[in-house]
Amino acid sequence: MSEINIVDAPPGIEGSGFFATSLDKVIGLARSNSLWPLPFATSCCGIEFMATMGSHYDLGRFGAERLSFSPRQADVLMVMGTIAKKMAPVLKQVYIQMAEPRWVMAVGACASSGGIFDTYSVLQGIDEVIPVDVYVPGCPPRPEAILDGFQRIQDLVKSESGRRRNSDYYKELLGQYGIK
């Protein structure tokens, strides 16, 4: 058997690191085109999401054909609409029940910042209880904006290293939210 010398490897690639990096890229590509979103819709943004799933916009074109209404089978938590403070523990529990790796998209002004409801009973952004990966602006956002946000999630998934979720930074981030 012949051995591969590091000298024979392309510039900038060192031994087995090449294979691990390539494997990360293949896994990222496969994950990004087969995401299962879990819609957590509470108000008008949910109606826009329904339009996004319809035939005119068709989120299924991006590999998200199957909506998952079980947190244990979902990859992407799509929070849409106003989240009351009483609902915050439920949202956090849904997030915790999702398997790693998981991503979160805050859709609309209410999920992102509380929207026009600056009151004692409305959560002023879901990032107070769970980490958010992508924010989609609008009140309510158009289906095109939701599709753009989903594509940004896909880009994040494609480029994410398989080792990121085990990093100290990620564990510290979850610790800030009281999540183990």
TrEMBL record:
GO cellular component: a single term: plasma membrane
A Pfam entry, by short name: Oxidored_q6
Keyword Transmembrane helix: no
Gene3D superfamilies: 3.40.50.12280
Bilayer topology: Peripheral membrane protein
Compartmental location: Cell membrane
Cofactor(s) required for function per UniProt: [4Fe-4S] cluster
Alphabetic keyword roster: 4Fe-4S, Cell membrane, Iron, Iron-sulfur, Membrane, Metal-binding, NAD, Oxidoreductase, Quinone, Translocase, Transport
GO biological process, one term: aerobic respiration
Principal localisation: membrane
EC number: 7.1.1.-
Keyword Transport assigned: yes
Domain NADH:ubiquinone oxidoreductase-like 20kDa subunit: 44-151
Reaction(s) catalysed by this chain's protein: a quinone + NADH + 5 H(+)(in) = a quinol + NAD(+) + 4 H(+)(out)
Residue positions binding [4Fe-4S] cluster: C44, C45, C110, C139
Gene Ontology molecular function: any one: NADH dehydrogenase (quinone) (non-electrogenic) activity
Cofactor notes: Binds 1 [4Fe-4S] cluster.
InterPro entries documented for this protein: NADH_UbQ_OxRdtase-like_20kDa, NADH_UQ_OxRdtase_20Kd_su
NCBIfam families, per the entry: nuoB_fam, PRK06411.1, PRK14820.1
Subunit field text: NDH-1 is composed of 14 different subunits. Subunits NuoB, C, D, E, F, and G constitute the peripheral sector of the complex.
Family stated for the protein in its record: Belongs to the complex I 20 kDa subunit family.
HAMAP family associated with the record: NDH1_NuoB
Job of this protein: NDH-1 shuttles electrons from NADH, via FMN and iron-sulfur (Fe-S) centers, to quinones in the respiratory chain. The immediate electron acceptor for the enzyme in this species is believed to be a menaquinone. Couples the redox reaction to proton translocation (for every two electrons transferred, four hydrogen ions are translocated across the cytoplasmic membrane), and thus conserves the redox energy in a proton gradient.
Name listed for the protein in its UniProt record: NADH-quinone oxidoreductase subunit B
Gene encoding the protein: nuoB
